[in-house]
Specification:
Layout (H helix, E strand, L loop, with lengths): L5 H11 L3 H13 L3 H24 L12 H10 L6 H19 L15 H13 L3 H21 L4 H4 L1 H19 L4 H14 L16 H20 L8 H14 L16 H11 L4
Length: 293
C-alpha cells in the first residue's frame, strides 16, 4: 500500500479503521517484509536511544568541540526545576529535552534523526515531556514514533526534509509538523486532527532559512529545535480544540516545496547568508576554520 498524500492517508485510516501509527506499521511491514513484532522492537530501540540522548544531555554542561554550544540544557532544566517557567511544564520540559538532545548531537553523541540530525531535538522533546507530565507509557511513545514516521514519509516524498535542499523550513519545519501531529494522536485526536496540526505547524515555519554559523548544525539550529517544541504543542492544542487549517496539509507541503525551490542558495545550509554572515557569525567561522600564516 502506497500513501502518497495526507488526503490519501486520512482516507486509508477511515477505510481500514486504523490510526495513523497503525497505518505506518502496516505499510512498513509490507514494504520491508518484516513482521510487525520485529518492526515494533526496532522502533523501541530507537526510543531508547532518544531517551539516552536526553539523559546524557540534560546533565552534561560541557561545551561542544566547536566551543559555540553546550550547557544550555542544564541551565534550562534548573530553571524549570525552580518553578520559574512562564510557559508551563509541558513546553518547558520539552524545551529542556530538546536542548539536551541537540547538544548531545553537537558533542558527537548518538541521536535519532527525526527526520534529520539538525532537527533531532523536537520529537524527543515533546514525547518525553508527555511521558513526564501525562505519564504516557513507553508503549504509547513508540506508537507516536510510527505516527511521526508516517507524517514524515509523506512530507519527504512530496517536498524536502533537508536544509540544503529547502532551508530550515524543511528540517525544523518538518520535524515540528511531525511532532505536532504526533501529540494529537497520542492525545486521542482523529487522523484529520493529526493532519490539521501538521499543517498548522508547518505553516508557522514556512520560509525559515538555513543559515548555520560556521556551517555547523549548532547556531541557530539548536535553539530553533527548542522553539519548534512550543510551536508543536501550540499547533496540537489548536487542532484538538477543533481549529482547522484553512489550507489543506498537502497544499501546505507543496507551498513549502515551492518556497524552498525559490530560496537563494545562500540561505540553504551554505553558511553564506543570514546569521552565518553577521559580524559575529563571520568571527566564529574565522576562529574555527582559518589559520594565520
Amino acid at each position: 500500500m502506497e500513501i502518497q498524500s495526507m488526503k490519501e492517508l486520512i482516507e486509508a485510516c477511515e477505510r481500514e479503521k486504523k490510526s495513523i501509527s497503525e497505518m505506518m506499521l502496516m505499510v512498513e511491514a509490507k514494504k520491508s517484509g518484516r513482521d510487525e513484532d520485529t518492526i515494533i522492537r526496532m522502533m523501541e530501540e530507537r526510543l531508547i536511544k532518544m531517551k539516552e540522548a536526553v539523559d546524557s544531555g540534560i546533565k552534561d554542561a560541557s561545551t561542544a568541540p566547536s566551543g559555540i554550544s553546550g550547557g544550555d540544557a542544564v541551565k534550562m532544566s534548573e530553571y524549570v526545576r525552580q518553578g520559574k517557567s512562564l510557559s508551563g511544564n509541558y513546553i518547558s520540559n520539552a524545551m529542556s529535552y530538546s536542548l539536551a538532545t541537540s547538544e548531545n548531537n553537537a558533542r558527537m553523541g548518538v541521536i535519532v534523526a527525526t527526520p534529520t540530525a539538525g532537527a533531532a531535538g523536537i520529537l524527543p522533546g515533546v514525547l518525553f515531556s508527555l511521558h513526564k507530565n501525562d505519564g504516557t507509557p513507553y508503549k504509547e511513545l513508540v506508537k507516536g514514533l510510527f505516527t511521526a514516521s508516517m507524517l514524515g514519509l509523506v512530507i519527504a516524498n512530496r517536498s524536502f526534509i533537508s536544509g540544503a535542499a529547502g532551508g530550515c523550513q524543511a528540517e525544523v519545519g518538518s520535524a515540528t509538523a511531525m511532532a505536532a501531529g504526533t501529540i494529537v494522536e497520542l492525545k486521542g485526536g482523529t487522523p484529520q486532527q493529526v493532519v490539521n496540526a501538521t499543517a498548522i505547524a508547518m505553516k508557522s515555519l514556512l520560509g525559515l532559512v538555513c543559515d548555520p554559523v560556521g556551517g555547523l548544525v549548532e547556531v541557530p539550529c539548536i535553539k530553533r529545535n527548542v522553539i519548534g517544541t512550543s510551536i508543536a504543542f501550540s499547533a496540537a492544542d489548536m487542532s484538538l480544540a477543533g481549529v482547522e487549517s484553512r489550507i489543506p496539509c498537502d497544499e501546505v507541503i507543496e507551498a513549502m516545496y515551492k518556497v524552498g525551490k525559490d530560496m537563494p542558495r545562500t540561505l540553504r545550509e551554505t553558511a553564506l547568508g543570514g546569521l552565518a554572515m553577521t559580524e559575529t557569525g563571520k568571527e566564529v567561522k574565522e576562529r574555527l576554520f582559518c589559520r594565520k600564516s
